[in-house]
């Protein structure tokens, strides 16, 4: 058992961790049963972001289960629920056809159990309108047996929908 305390002014921050005992290690037990550890899940998701940044969509798609569910919020041409690896491949083609991403920055990765949540930011332009968009986002992944089985994005949908809009903005 570890106990670490930091004092800052009048407050005290205490961090506590219990050392796992042999035979009682859930992570080791999961490996023996073929389950992925949080670190394995985290590594797989991080590798996926690397694949995306290199434009290697085929390798990225290989990290997804055949029956993956991919959810993009909003009411723009990219929004919807894509079911199956082939449909998710269609999403990435559509993303490439409709937008130019100038910055895509996963900044923080959080893993717990079979979930990995990534916080980040993106900037881009809609090709058909020339309008730019930027958004902070959260992306939630659910993994099973070493594959992503579900993806849900949380982002500023109004910003992206405005960039897709062909309506002229009224001058103030």
What is this structure, in a nutshell?
This protein is α+β, with helices and mostly antiparallel strands and 172 residues long. The protein has helices spanning 26-32, 38-53, 57-61, 85-98, 157-164; strands at residues 2-8, 11-17, 64-72, 80-83, 99-112, 115-126, 132-144, 147-155.
Explain what the structure shows:
The protein is of the alpha+beta class. It has one domain: Nuclear Transport Factor 2, Chain: A, CATH 3.10.450. 29% of the residues lie in helices and 44% in strands. It contains five helices and eight strands. The chain has a six-stranded mixed beta sheet with strand order 4-3-8-7-6-5. The chain has a two-stranded antiparallel ribbon with strand order 1-2. A hairpin with a 2-residue loop joins strand 7 and strand 8. It is globular, with a radius of gyration of 20 Å. The N terminus is likely disordered.
């Amino acid at each position: 058992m570890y106990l670490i305390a930091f004092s800052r002014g009048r407050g005290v921050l205490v961090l506590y961790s219990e050392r796992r005992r042999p035979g009682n290690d859930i992570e080791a037990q999961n490996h023996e049963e073929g389950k992925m550890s949080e670190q394995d899940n985290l590594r797989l998701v991080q590798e996926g972001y690397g694949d995306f940044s290199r434009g290697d969509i085929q390798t990225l798609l290989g990290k997804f289960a055949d029956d993956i569910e991919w959810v993009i919020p909003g009411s723009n041409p990219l929004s919807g629920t894509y079911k199956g690896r082939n449909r998710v491949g269609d999403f990435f083609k559509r993303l490439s056809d409709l937008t130019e991403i100038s910055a895509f920055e996963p900044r923080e990765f959080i893993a717990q159990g079979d979930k990995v949540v990534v916080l980040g930011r993106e900037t881009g332009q809609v090709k058909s309108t020339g309008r730019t968009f930027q958004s902070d986002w959260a992306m939630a992944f659910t993994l099973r047996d070493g594959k992503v089985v579900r993806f849900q994005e949380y982002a500023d949908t109004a910003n992206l929908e405005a960039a897709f809009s062909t309506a002229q903005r009224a001058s103030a």
